[in-house]
Write a structure and sequence with these properties.
Layout lengths: L2 H17 L14 E6 L6 H4 L8 E6 L5 E4 L2 E4 L1 H9 L4 E7 L3 H10 L10 H20 L6 H22 L8 E8 L10 E7 L5 H7 L14
Parallel strand pairs: 1-2, 1-5, 5-6
Antiparallel strand pairs: 3-4, 6-7
Helix pairs in contact: 4-5, 5-6
Enzyme class: lyase
Cofactor: Zn(2+)
Keywords: Lyase, Metal-binding, Zinc
Length: 229
Amino acid sequence: MNRTVVALLRDNAGHAREFASRFDDVQNGQHPEAVTVCCSDSRVLQDHVFGNETPGRLFTCGNIGNRVIQRTAAGEVVSGDVLYPLEHTGTRTAVVVGHTGCGAVTATYGALTDDLDVGSEPPGIEHCVGLLGPQLEPGVALLPDGVDAGEAVNRLVEYNVDRQVEALLDSDDVPDDTDVVGVVYDFQDVYGGERGEVHVINVDGERDPETLRAASPEVADRIDRIWTY
């Protein structure tokens, strides 16, 4: 068998030994505390980001660009994988998790600035970039002159998280009492903390760091933005 799969199965055996007794309370149902919407990226370990080792605690979703929107015949709607725990498991916290150096945002930025021919990508990737494009295009227009590509991408990472939070808040399908939080996972030391830290940039549409720190002083050191617009 493929050596990578053999190694994965060996590691899974250790996981099974460690977790065998942790499923008793979730054998027949789940009531996760939060749904997290992360970018599909090998550097973003969704459960490990939050130190999660409890089955049933987090409902984790992942896709290119940590999007909450899918395109249907009826138009753009909140993606079913994000909506499911909000509709059916009593979950009332949604966390959109962007990350520094995001490849999806980089590709979308390239497409919007004519530095990338999206038509050369496979249809699945082209579709994902096409969903992000309309949301990020206003952000590209807001970028200050003189920022290099890396700076532009990390600013747009925040902008993208803001747009996903906004989409959840604006959706009639999302229960009104859902708390929606936008964060950025930083493994590039962009925010000046430890690599691997999560930084809160948006809470229920509020984006001003000082206002957010005043409201949540217990985590004031984890609230920050690199771009206000």
